[in-house]
Design a protein that fits this description.
This protein is mainly α. The protein is built from nine helices and no strands. Helix content is about 70%, strand content about 0%. The radius of gyration is 16 Å and the shape is globular.
């Protein structure tokens, strides 16, 4: 538990963003944490527990998406949770549009952007997780932002530019 305490917030935010509309974030977190607890002695570098958890969550989520691409009930549950936390109907529409656009990004860019903007990890931490260097992560985040901006600007009713930052407070 001591090793997990500093990992909780970024891990929870990442799982929330990763699972949005596709699966229950709490289920994803619990599955990954149970697996990590059972394998804790086999984790070589305990100081990189967060990296292990994030990779495990991503792998587990990808496996789940392959089995069940669409699940309207979970999307509705997530929307209800966001409403309970103060999200307006307009924001819920924007969130759906944003996540649709995020799904169109290459996975390395999407993950880098979510880890940076939503989970609040540093470029160095993301580089370690993605097995690359900080410059590559900066490029991925920059390209992801540019691509998202171009996808969202062409809409009849533009999506708020600060939506990703606003979501950070609503995700948990």
């Amino acid at each position: 538990m001591k090793a997990y305490a500093p990992c909780h917030e970024p891990f929870a935010r990442y799982c929330s963003a990763l699972a949005y509309g596709r699966m229950d974030a709490q289920d994803l977190m619990q599955d990954v944490l149970l697996s990590a607890f059972q394998r804790f002695e086999r984790i070589r570098r305990k100081d990189e527990l967060l990296h292990y958890l994030l990779r495990a969550a991503r792998n587990r989520a990808v496996s789940a998406w392959r089995l069940d691409r669409r699940n309207a009930d979970r999307f509705e549950k997530r929307s209800e949770r966001l409403k309970e936390r103060g999200a307006s109907a307009e924001m819920l529409v924007d969130v759906g549009i944003l996540y649709g656009a995020l799904d169109k990004l290459p996975s390395a860019q999407r993950d880098a952007l979510v880890l940076f903007e939503v989970s609040g990890l540093s470029m160095a931490e993301i580089a370690a997780i993605q097995g690359t260097n900080e410059n590559a992560v900066k490029t991925r985040v920059s390209r992801a932002r540019t691509t998202l901006r171009s996808m969202l600007e062409g809409r009849a009713r533009p999506v708020r530019a600060d939506l990703l930052n606003t979501l950070t407070g609503l995700m948990l």
